[in-house]
Specification:
Layout lengths: L4 E2 L6 H12 L18 H13 L3 H9 L3 E8 L3 E10 L7 E6 L13 H4 L7 E6 L17 H14 L5 E5 L2 H12 L4 E6 L13 H9 L4 H4 L1 H12 L1 H8 L1 H10 L1 H14 L8 H12 L10 H8 L5 H4 L7 E6 L9 H4 L5 E6 L7 H4 L1 H12 L25
Parallel strand pairs: 4-5, 4-6, 6-7, 7-8, 8-9
Antiparallel strand pairs: 1-2, 2-3, 3-5
Helix pairs in contact: 5-6, 10-14, 11-12, 12-13
């Protein structure tokens, strides 16, 4: 493991100075009277956040908090794409026999999403976990990709090889957004290594009579509960009013990338809209918003690189986003349904995705479950992998229980 090195984030003063200049010379658009959120991020909100970014936000404080985490970086060879430097958090539990869990983020999130659940899952409370949370390639402090065609299988390969390099031949996964789709493809490609997967963005399909008659009949004749009744409204809203970003990012990411890479306020508005729309009235603080945005602004490859996963996954007809929504055998699956996810589906839809061994329905929460509802997510993982849970003992020799040892960072 000599090629695994500790890592500290250190944004140069010159970069912060250049950011300050760009903020100072921002040209804001006009806005219609009483526009609210109907047309996108409100002007008053963006002006307020920009002023706070200029005058009060302290990146060095946020940077110090990030550097207080167990950060590492290591080279990973990806077939056909060369060697990528991958940044990751690796927090080990003091419990011998803790379960290795890969936490995989998406857009517009980052490794930062793991930080609220990190101390909970790695504590001596059992079942306990060793947590690995990488910055995906093109994101955060990992290297960018310079060749076309880096799609979900390559993200999956990167994450899988990282786990093997850390000495975890068997492990479990947790993912939302692209993290859901990437870990699903990992389950498809590496089923002897990925022993179970938990997701909080469920994108299955209605059961079909001839392929799953029992589930089809259960779905047809079982009444929907309150969350399921609201599913169509939330999903239709997303399709009609919230999905424009995805079309652009999946078709012409480079064109959009010029604006996001040149204008910090443009990037702020693009991400802030999603933080508002995709959560369940979560009370975002100015510092939270600006730290999420700053990780994109100060990322190794820049904001434009983070968009390309949409294009590549849409073009991949074999292992793209559509395949991640279909049945994947052999890997146990856990589902947590949150009512303000960007698409909400009935329970039966999720059960078409794989051998479901755990399922929960929440009364509150949206797209960023680990950030909005960390206790709920941690509870679900403990039930799923704990004694009597559907994924109990799936990792050989690592049940999540055992003798407590001194906490190690690596």
């Amino acid at each position: 493991m000599a090629s695994i090195e500790t890592f500290n984030v250190a944004v140069p003063d010159s970069e912060l100075g250049r950011l300050a200049q760009k903020l100072e010379h921002t040209n804001f658009p006009d806005e219609l009277d009483e526009a609210g959120w109907a047309y996108g991020a409100p002007l008053a909100d963006i002006k307020r956040l920009t002023k706070y970014w200029q005058e009060q936000y302290d990146w060095r404080k946020a940077e110090a908090a990030i550097n207080g985490l167990p950060n590492y970086k290591t080279p990973i060879d990806v077939d056909g794409f060369g060697t990528l430097g991958i940044h990751f958090i690796h927090q080990k539990s003091p419990v011998e026999g803790a379960i290795p869990l890969l936490f995989c983020h998406g857009w517009p999130g980052s490794f930062l999403e793991v930080t609220k659940i990190l101390p909970l899952l790695t504590s001596s409370t059992t079942p306990s976990f060793h947590i690995i949370a990488p910055s995906l390639p093109n994101y955060g402090f990992s290297s960018g990709v310079t060749k076309r065609g880096f799609s979900l299988p390559q993200y999956a390969e990167t994450c899988h090889k990282l786990m093997l390099k850390l000495g975890y031949p068997q492990y479990v996964t947790q993912g939302g957004d692209w993290g859901c789709m990437i870990t699903r493809i990992m389950s498809l490609l590496y089923p002897s290594h990925v022993r179970a997967a938990h997701i909080n963005m469920i994108r299955g399909h209605a059961p079909i009579l001839f392929s799953n008659p029992l589930l089809y009949l259960q779905h047809k004749f079982s009444p929907y509960n309150a969350r399921e009744k609201g599913a169509a409204d939330r999903s239709n809203w997303m399709l009609k009013e919230g999905s424009g970003y995805r079309v652009e990012q999946a078709t012409k990411p480079q064109t959009l990338g010029y604006s996001l890479s040149d204008s910090p306020v443009g990037l702020l508005a693009w991400i802030y809209e999603k933080l508002h729309d995709w959560t369940d009235s979560y009370p975002w603080t100015n510092d939270e918003i600006l730290t999420w945005v700053s990780i994109y602004w100060h990322s190794v490859s820049g904001p434009a690189a983070t968009l390309r996963i949409y294009y590549e996954a849409a073009k991949d007809r074999g292992f793209g986003r559509d395949r991640s929504e279909l049945y994947i055998p052999n890997v146990k699956l856990g589902l947590s349904h949150f009512p303000k996810e960007i698409t909400v589906v009935p329970k039966a839809y999720g059960r078409t995705m794989g051998p479901v061994v755990f399922e929960s329905e929440k009364e509150k929460g949206g797209h960023f479950a680990a950030w909005e509802c960390p206790d709920e997510l941690v509870s679900d993982l403990r039930v799923m992998f704990g004694k009597g849970g559907g994924a109990e003992g799936v990792v050989d020799g690592r049940s999540g229980y055992g003798v407590e040892k001194g906490r190690a960072r690596f």
